[in-house]
Amino acid sequence: MSLTIECLRSMEAVASFNNMTHAAQALGITRAAVSAHVKKLEAQLGCQLVKPLGRGIMLTADGEILAARARDIMTLHDDTFHELAPPHSNELVIAATEHTAHSIVPDLLHALREAQPHLSFRVRLTRSSKARDMLLDQRADISLFLRHHVPGAQHVADLPLEWVGVEGSPRDAMVAFHRPCAVRDQAMAHYQAHAPGGSAMTIVKECEDLASVMQAVAHGQGITPLIRTIAWSKPFKTVSLQPSAGDTGNAGNAGYIGRVPLYLATSARVSRAMMREILHILRQSLGRVDPEVPS
């Protein structure tokens, strides 16, 4: 008995996107296929890997272990394939910061597949620095990353960040992605500048993927800094550092941290016209959340 690449890739995507539907969009397969892959892994391993959580999913302890292993296996698999096999003429690889997993990458994929039906797209969610390096190493064709500007990159927008938690979340405890993480660093600086009574914030959990971040927040371990989205599904909501200031879901500036720049860079395999099209898609999608995004 062996664990197949297809099943492990689905498991990695589910953990990265914290959502079966978004994972399916990223892989270019149906939601039913992703669900079947996860169930096959559960049957093979004899343990439960995921549970529903709002409109997303929650990894079990075994699921977290497998997601981490799947990520390592898929990285080795894809890098080996890149080194030894010629690139597919009709496949483009998108390397993107994990902070774009909630809505930016799913919206981009949906629009690109409609506009470019003759092309296929494969997504790798990773740290911003790695997304940039994958482009420079010619392991990716489209790269979305925060802060780390490279020659030829286009500034997409300055993305608004906000604190996200659940009812009763401790305001002095942060759930964060492992370093290096531009969002984590900016959020910590914001807390130090606005902390009530000069209190200190503690990193209570460091995570490798969005599912693990949201799971820890759902369990009330702390709050986390994320890119502002249209609406958080229950039990999540925008929270302010001082509960008395009002936790308003997504209204006003409650929970506002600041902005972080998002950049787009493409390889020589992507035409200038297509790069402009991607830039337009991204800004159009982001503009639905933030009116300050340039059109």
Task: Give a verbal description of the structure.
It is a single chain. This protein is of the alpha/beta class and 295 residues long. The chain folds into three domains: 5-84, Arc Repressor Mutant, subunit A (Orthogonal Bundle); 91-158 and 260-288, Periplasmic binding protein-like II (D-Maltodextrin-Binding Protein, domain 2, 3-Layer(aba) Sandwich); 160-242 and 254-259, Periplasmic binding protein-like II (D-Maltodextrin-Binding Protein, domain 2). It has nine helices and eleven strands. It has helices spanning 5-17, 20-27, 31-45, 61-84, 104-115, 128-136, 182-194, 210-218, 272-287; strands at 50-53, 56-59, 91-97, 120-126, 142-146, 154-165, 173-177, 202-207, 224-227, 237-238, 256-266. The strands form three sheets. Strands 3, 4, 5, 6, 9, 10 and 11 form a seven-stranded mixed sheet that branches. A two-stranded antiparallel sheet has the order 1-2. Strands 7-8 form a two-stranded parallel ribbon. β3, α5 (104-115) and β4 (120-126) form a beta-alpha-beta unit. α1 (5-17) packs across α2 (20-27), α1 crosses α4 and α2 crosses α3 (31-45). It is globular. The model is unreliable at 245-252 (pLDDT under 50).
Short description:
It is built from 9 helices and 11 strands.
Low-confidence stretches: 245-252
Strand content: 15-25%
Average of per-residue pLDDT values: 85
Query: Please, what is the CATH homologous superfamily of the largest domain?
Result: Periplasmic binding protein-like II
Named CATH topology of the largest domain: D-Maltodextrin-Binding Protein, domain 2
Helix content: 40-55%
Provide the structure class: alpha/beta
